[in-house]
Amino acid sequence: MRNINDNWLYLENHTPNLNEAQKASNWVSLNLPHTWNAEDATDLMPGYRRDASWYQKKLNISKIDQNQVYSLYFEGSNVTTKVYVNGKEAGSHIGGYIGFSIDVTKLIKEGNNDIFVRVDNSYDIEVIPSQKSDFFIYGGITRDVWLVSKYKNHIENIKITTPEVSAKKASVQIVSSFVNPDNSKDLSLTVTLKNPKGKKVASKTVLVSDKTSTITFENIKNPELWDTEKPNLYRLSAVLSEKNQIKDSVSEKVGFRWFEFKDHGPFYLNGKRLLIRGTHRHEEQAGVGAAMTNEQHWADMKSIKEMGANFVRLAHYPQDPEIYKACDELGLLVWDELPWCRGGIGNDAWKTNTKNMLSEIINQNYNHPSIIIWSLGNEINWLPDFPDGDNAEKTNAFLTELNDIAHQLDPTRKTAIRKYYEGSHIVDVFSPSIWSGWYSGSYKSYQKAIDVYKKEYKHFIHAEYGGDSHVGRHSENPVTGENIIKAEGWEEAIVQTKVANIAQIGDWSENYIVDLFDWHLHISENDPTFVGNVQWAFKDFATPLRPEDDIPYMNQKGLTDRNGIPKDAYYVFKSYWAKEPFAYIESHTWTERQGPENTPRTISVFSNCDKVTLSHNGKSLGEKQRNLALYPVNGLTWDVNFTKGENILIAIGKTKDGKTVSDTLKVNYRFNKNDTAVSLQLSSEKLKNGNYLVTAIAIDNNNLRCLDYEASVYFQCLKGGKTLKNQGTPTGSESIRMANGKASIEVIPDGSGNPIEMTALNQSFKGEYLKISVE
User: Fold this and answer.
1) How is 49-106 classified by DSSP, letter by letter?
2) Which residues are catalytically annotated?
3) 220-261, pLDDT tens digit by residue?
4) Which helix (H) or strand (E) holds 18?
5) How far from 300 is each of 222, 559, 563, CA to CA, in Å?
6) Could you tell me if 677 and 705 are in contact, meaning their C-beta atoms sit under 8 angstroms apart?
7) What does pTM read for this prediction?
């Protein structure tokens, strides 16, 4: 296999005609992965480019072996793809989130080969996901591309199952399928299994006389089990030989584990109860959209694991191959999802495309021990694209078909669906919609909701809960909706116009969301019969449906921002789940506060340590024992009487074995409350990367920062550089709502040495100007 990501050319032209594309002169060079929506998805203009583009590459193949077959393997190309080699059509694929192979053996030649690829993400209701989904459908070759060459007789696929697993013994079954065009009678397959330390535990050789062969290793004694704490992986190699000469080999990882969803009860992994501690991942990042590097994929998964999660739902589509590798190696259980997201039931072409994609997902991801659930969709009957698309009878008939396909292709795993109640009985595991404290009701209704559903659904899991938070926005009294909303509800409504809820009336402060998550975890961590829950979502992500959010076009429900930088909420989860000792004083983005003199403020410390001490300006406020039964913050709160000016808080956490960790926070406190905002004050600081951070602060007549000012401000760089815009991050958007009267943007100097000239403005302030001398 040879990675061919580098040195492609790109043409933004939707012509379906290859000749026309070849003649075009405005090709630009780039490397893959790539999406043409990396920035236009999150710019301030409504909509984003939904159209076709072309890619081309000169692929040099120095020698062609007549005994080899050659193919191009695309890990993902969104949404429909057509491939041409040396002027001839080589193949095509429908569906954007899964890999596919194009045979080019008969079309290539020695030397330079012209590869042209047309990719199209146009509006197409016959291809899932529905355009009504709450995320962008990024166009382009969004993942790696490979040139694969194999001997003409080769292993096409190996499927690994573990029919028997216990702590004492295990078995593994390997079903190999072959391509053998000459019907050679001299083929043999040798399969070897090595334990996690590399020691051989089993090996077998069989003659290959058919298109498939099955090898079983029985009685593997005392297997080293795969679990979320110790993700032990065995290595399996399959070698195909012809007349004792090696012609092909395939290597896979194997994990021995078994799991069970107890009826109306918890989840068990390897015979022990495991509370599912989950989050969701969208495949995208600031600045690149879905065209992430493997390093960026791994960074997400490592951060999820460091938080202490043991489960991840891949939302709402299968993801890059590196994600599954990471989950196998890090010990994260996976819910892998067919992208049937909204849009209802479709026509015959839609059904064919959807069934094909489910088969592709299961066949490609089959060998990963981390995967325990094949999800058949999410909110599937919301907002139908076709007439009668929300017809439950028709939907259930098709859902049953999908469920049967999943079980036929893989009898070892469970099927699931989220928020389609009419089909809850069809699948193995069901997630209803519970958005306590955000889209409905108060978060205090959470226990009641899970008690209702534990009884109602045989195998119930709770996927999706949380709410939006704007980095740096804090409130001494977060809006909880008491006496305004109906506190008892918990389900999200399709149309949000008729319901009063926190999503609409809340302050989007980091404080409120911290309280909401703390309550949800307080409930789930103390309920011995609960299966567990899956927070929505790990990172802020971009969506066409939310132009009016604090950062336009961003769903801000992440525990981190769109670059993966943790918000306060990340530390709430860490305090319940993480192993590595830590302490975090709430909050590092809340360093300017105000209030009357001699009014104590409750300070929370998120920590997983056994005991924590907090000191204020050098004086200890006492040691507290962490207690899982206490809310909020497992009892780690102190009342602090702030002094005027600088206050230094130090938290020291001590583990059971005497290890200590600490956190320090400086808070500037004032006793006089700000008046109405009258102007913006602009300032700049040079960053380590050579860029400048330009900050706007709303101030009153007394030059006090207006901690209650939350309107949007608009930044513009007039000369000397350019803003880092369209990122969807707290310092990467030209339009952003203020957080406690403050907003910032990163500015990149143009290298000329000329001063940078900036403006920030809105309706209230008309405009402020800043000139920065560039060093």
Assistant:
1) --SEEEEEEEEEES---TTEEEEEEES--BSEEEEEETTEEEEEEE-SSS-EEEE-TT
2) 379
3) 999 999 999 999 999 999 999 999 999 999 999 999 999 999
4) helix 18-23
5) 33, 12, 9
6) no
7) 0.97
